[in-house]
Write a structure and sequence with these properties.
Order of helices and strands: EHEEHHEEEHEEEEHEEEEHHEEEHHHHH
Strand order of the largest sheet: 5-4-12-13-14-11-15
Number of strands: 17
CATH topology of the largest domain: FAD/NAD(P)-binding domain
CATH architecture of the largest domain: 3-Layer(bba) Sandwich
Distance between the termini: 31 Å
Strand content: 15-25%
Largest sheet: 7 strands, mixed
Number of helices: 12
CATH class of the largest domain: Alpha Beta
CATH superfamily of the largest domain: FAD/NAD(P)-binding domain
Helix content: 25-40%
């Protein structure tokens, strides 16, 4: 008699919840173990390009998300050098796969509601996965539960699952800090609240702003140099940086209007990711934490979830073949994730140019035109599970 098709997931973030839904859709019983006593909003807004929204739509989440998500028409690429627009890149909305921006809490709430409605998914809060054992039959034992076919570490950049699998692999601080804040749109002067995604490029920093929460709020992310541990860092440091570099008044107004600032040191893992050992695999930031400059952090975790479910779908309750399925998952994901990591890193260097190099960048972007600039992203957006 075959063993139950059960999987344990460590972590109830976006990647872990999506993986649970994707696995349950393929007949698995899933137990999610989350260390937090309650799931609360983390961060502010996020962008979901068609490669990610396509997965969520196929999982049946569109009705839950369409009324809270905003589908902007374009990204407006702005330069702090002149305060003007360099290019406006239209978003290509593939059939059934929009480009969405939304509050992170809205996506988490939609995923959580779907998880709670699914009879084959059990979510346990206040249950950290601090250790596990691989049994002689190839199953995985996590304290407090029955053996599982597989354990999936979706527990973030400081993953305890990865720490046990690969103790020598540690996140590397990038030297950059993301400050994330929110603005009540009504607090901004008329015409300053962005209606699409705005990307501001400037000297040694950049800023992204876009509407969320049905247009009532604006998400703003300021990327500036910093240190991993800055106990005295405050929101005034952000304003000081942008004023000292003589950024346009409109940017400084947005920064002054934002509140709820949260500081996120940006750390990364090696290009291509760290994926699996036997019946244990990693997903999302636990596998491939990357710079957010391609707006693909959440997107890559959602893609991981879809591919993971595909690779495990043929496992018929035999733990000995799970390792091969997870090795295939790693082989499928590593090249694409590595390319996205490199793209994000290169984008950050381009955004932060200054002086004559910034002028040359702006001239090249204008010469290329919106169509050719947008086409450079098609390999990301056109992905399908």
């Amino acid at each position: 008699m075959s063993a139950p098709r059960n999987v344990v997931i460590a972590g109830a973030g976006i990647g872990g919840l999506t993986a649970a839904l994707a696995l349950a859709a393929r007949g698995f019983s899933v137990r999610i173990l989350e260390k937090a006593e309650r799931l609360e909003e983390v961060g502010a807004g996020l962008q979901l390009s068609p490669n990610a929204s396509r997965v969520l739509v196929r999982l049946g989440l569109e009705p839950r998300l369409s009324h809270v998500a905003i589908a902007p028409d374009a990204v407006s690429v702005m330069t702090a050098r002149s305060g003007g627009e360099v290019s406006r890149l239209p978003f290509a909305h593939a059939a059934g796969a929009p480009y969405w921006v939304m509050h992170r809490a809205d996506l988490q709430s939609a995923l959580l509601a779907a998880v709670n409605d699914h009879p084959q998914i059990e979510l346990q809060l206040g249950r950290p996965v601090e250790n596990f054992t691989i049994n002689s039959d190839g199953s995985v034992a996590v304290p407090g539960g029955a053996p599982a076919l597989a354990l999936i570490g979706a527990d973030g950049v400081r993953s305890t699952v990865r720490q046990q699998l690969f103790p020598d692999v540690q996140p590397e601080f990038s030297g950059l800090v993301a400050w994330r804040g929110r603005i009540e749109a009504r607090r901004l002067p008329h015409g300053l609240a962005p209606r699409q995604v705005q990307l501001w490029m400037g000297p040694r920093a950049h800023l992204v702003a876009y509407p969320m929460s049905s247009g009532e709020q604006v998400n703003v992310v300021a990327i500036v140099p910093g240190h991993l541990d800055e106990p005295h860092a405050s929101a005034t440091d952000i304003a000081r940086h942008f004023k000292a570099s003589h950024w346009p008044t409109s940017v400084q107004v947005m920064i002054d209007a934002a509140d709820g600032w949260q500081r996120w040191p940006l750390s990364t893992l090696p290009d291509g990711g760290i994926w699996n050992a036997g019946p244990v695999a990693l997903l999302g930031d636990a596998a491939h934490a990357m710079l957010p400059f391609a707006a693909q952090g959440a997107g890559m975790a959602i893609e991981d979830a879809a591919v993971l479910a595909q690779c495990l779908s043929d496992v018929e309750g035999t733990p000995t073949v799970v390792s091969a399925a997870l090795a295939r998952y790693a082989a499928l994901r590593a090249p694409r994730v590595g390319r996205v990591q490199r793209t994000a890193r290169q984008s950050g260097r381009i955004y932060h140019l200054h002086g004559p190099m910034a002028l040359a960048r702006d001239m090249v972007m204008r010469a290329l035109g919106a169509g050719r600039l947008q086409a450079r992203q098609n390999w990301i957006y056109d992905w399908k599970p």
